[in-house]
């Protein structure tokens, strides 16, 4: 899909990791398609994960009692957020597709990626009230989670020790336990990821609250 823009938000400390390989093959495949790919390498950027009053460059609306959500909302409207937040918001705004590449930490994203979400996807930019989920400001963009686990696929089943992964995350592309997999198995995982990216623009988005997700 020549002309499409992709933002790849990457959260891993080691370039030689399997996550690093997932990131690299995604950049290569999407670039071959004619896409413009931008990578936010959060660890290399030393991205600040903490949401604090330092994110607001202007005067606070209520200096007596600091409420981050309210202050970030007001600062966004005044263009008074710090430059690192504004830069990431610009990348998101320009992207047709945002890919998050990360290892699963305690059934969630790494702290640095959670901080990116907390600071970048603020009210006014990503959503408002009302106006969230399927009616949020980013509703016309595509997003994809690509992550690795420390355990095997069997550990994330209904009968597995970690439980059914569908109940703690909507996983769109999982690479189960690359560290405990053979080199051949890791190659298959990478090939599967590349194959999916070849047809990524034809996929139907998943609705935020599909009824089938909570059945059975």
Automatic annotation (TrEMBL):
GO terms for molecular function: dihydronicotinamide riboside quinone reductase activity; metal ion binding. InterPro entries: Flavodoxin_fold, Flavoprotein-like_sf, NAD(P)H_dehydrogenase_qn. It is an enzyme of class 1 (oxidoreductase). Keywords: Cytoplasm, FAD, Flavoprotein, Metal-binding, Oxidoreductase, Phosphoprotein, Zinc. SUPFAM superfamilies: Flavoproteins. It holds the Pfam family Flavodoxin_2. Its EC number is 1.10.5.1. Transmembrane segments: none annotated. GO terms for cellular component: cytoplasm. Its cofactor is FAD; Zn(2+). It comes from the Eukaryota. The keyword DNA repair does not apply. It is found in: Cytoplasm. Residues 4-176 form the Flavodoxin-like fold domain. It catalyses: 1-(beta-D-ribofuranosyl)-1,4-dihydronicotinamide + a quinone + H(+) = beta-nicotinamide D-riboside + a quinol. Belongs to the NAD(P)H dehydrogenase (quinone) family. Homodimer. The enzyme apparently serves as a quinone reductase in connection with conjugation reactions of hydroquinones involved in detoxification pathways as well as in biosynthetic processes such as the vitamin K-dependent gamma-carboxylation of glutamate residues in prothrombin synthesis. This is Ribosyldihydronicotinamide dehydrogenase [quinone]. It comes from Rattus norvegicus (Rat).
């Amino acid at each position: 899909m020549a002309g499409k823009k992709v933002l790849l938000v990457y959260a891993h400390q080691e370039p030689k990791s399997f996550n690093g390989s997932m990131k690299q093959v995604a950049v290569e495949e999407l670039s071959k398609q004619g896409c413009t790919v931008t990578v936010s390498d959060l660890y290399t950027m030393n991205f600040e994960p903490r949401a604090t009053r330092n994110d607001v460059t202007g005067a606070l609306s209520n200096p007596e009692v600091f409420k981050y959500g309210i202050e970030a909302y007001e600062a966004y409207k005044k263009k008074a957020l710090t430059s690192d937040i504004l830069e990431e918001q610009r990348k998101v705004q320009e992207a047709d597709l945002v890919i998050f590449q990360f290892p699963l930490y305690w059934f969630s994203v790494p702290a640095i990626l959670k901080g990116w979400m907390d600071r970048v996807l603020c009210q006014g930019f990503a959503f408002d009230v009302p106006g969230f989920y399927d009616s949020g400001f980013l509703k016309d963009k595509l997003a994809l989670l690509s992550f690795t686990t420390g355990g095997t696929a069997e550990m994330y089943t209904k009968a597995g020790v970690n439980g059914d992964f569908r109940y703690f995350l909507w996983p769109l592309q999982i690479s189960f336990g690359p560290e405990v997999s053979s080199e051949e198995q890791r190659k298959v995982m990478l090939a599967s990821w590349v194959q999916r990216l070849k047809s990524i623009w034809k996929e139907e988005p998943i609705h935020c609250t599909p009824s089938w997700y909570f059945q059975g």
